[in-house]
Amino acid sequence: MPQSNQRHVLSALVQNVPGVLAHISGMLASRGYNIDSLAVGETEDPNLSRMTFVVVGDDHVLEQVGKQLEKIVTVVRVLDVSSRDFVERDLLLLKVKAPAGTGRSEIRELVDIFRGQIVDVGPEEVMIEISGRENKVQAFIERMRPYGITELVRTGRIAMVRSGNDAAAADDSEARFAT
Fold first, then answer.
1. What per-residue confidence (pLDDT) applies to 61?
2. 41, exposed or middle or buried, with CB in 10 Å at 0-12, 13-18, 19+?
3. Are 88 and 133 in contact (CB under 8 A)?
4. 107-143: per-residue pLDDT in tens?
5. What is the assigned CATH class of domain 6-85+162-177?
6. What is the pTM of this model?
7. Which of 12, 105, 118, 150 could disulfide-link 95, Cβ–Cβ 3.0 to 4.6 Å?
8. Which residues are the signal sequence here (predicted)?
9. 86, exposed or middle or buried, with CB in 10 Å at 0-12, 13-18, 19+?
10. CB 155 within 8 A of CB 91
């Protein structure tokens, strides 16, 4: 019995041309699929970009999203990253109230514990950078709330299949999304 509301990480290698992001996100939205997270960036080949999607749903949703993506001419390849052994990261920049004194010291300690960095210091607040798995980033946000978060921005999730799994992931994804 398929599980509902599973989190699926898909990686689409796409041509690096104007309009690809709008085309793909519009296609998914028009079919009622919600993108939980999206990150896009140029790859080692400047002619290609990688789009990393997180979609929530059952295996049928995953299969349909994959098939829809592969129908788009500018999509070169789609991989179901979450079906393999993979590494994922999320990046957070956060401004938090930190007037000089004890509070600022406590914040510095928490930043160190979470292996983050203070990247900017103002008279009344600091800006912090944290990267890691989604649950780590979320835990850090919860620890900062009592101090007074003034601004927060996150990237979408990025992910890569661990070394030695690339060929298997490509074979599995191509078989899974084949029409």
1. 84
2. exposed
3. yes
4. 999 999 999 999 999 999 999 999 999 999 999 999 9
5. alpha beta
6. 0.77
7. 150
8. none
9. middle
10. yes
Find tokens 């510095």 and name the residue.
Answer: 108
Which two three-digit tokens encode residue 154? 């996150």
Does residue 8 contact residue 62 with C-beta atoms inside 8 Å?
yes
Residue 131 near residue 87, CB atoms below 8 Å: no
In the chain, where are the structural domains located? 6-85+162-177, 87-158
Give me the residue label for tokens 């979609």. 55
pLDDT tens, residue by residue, 150-178: 999 999 899 999 998 655 545 554 545 54
CATH for 87-158, among 3.60.15.10, 3.10.580.10, 3.30.70.1150, 3.30.479.30?
Answer: 3.30.70.1150
Contact 50, 41 (CB under 8 A): yes
Tokens of 112: 């160190």
The answer to whether the beta carbons of residues 39 and 155 sit under 8 Å apart is: yes
Tell me if 6-85+162-177 shares its fold with 87-158.
Answer: yes
Tokens of 35: 């993108």
Q: How far is CA 58 from the centre of its chain?
A: 19
Measured in residues, the chain has a length of 179
Encoded amino acid at 115, one letter: R
C-beta separation of 157 from 52 below 8 A: yes
